[in-house]
Amino acid sequence: MKTLVAAGATLLREADAPPQGGVRGYVADPDGHIWEIAWNPAWPINEEGHVVFGM
Question: What pTM was estimated for this model as a whole?
Answer without folding.
Answer: 0.75
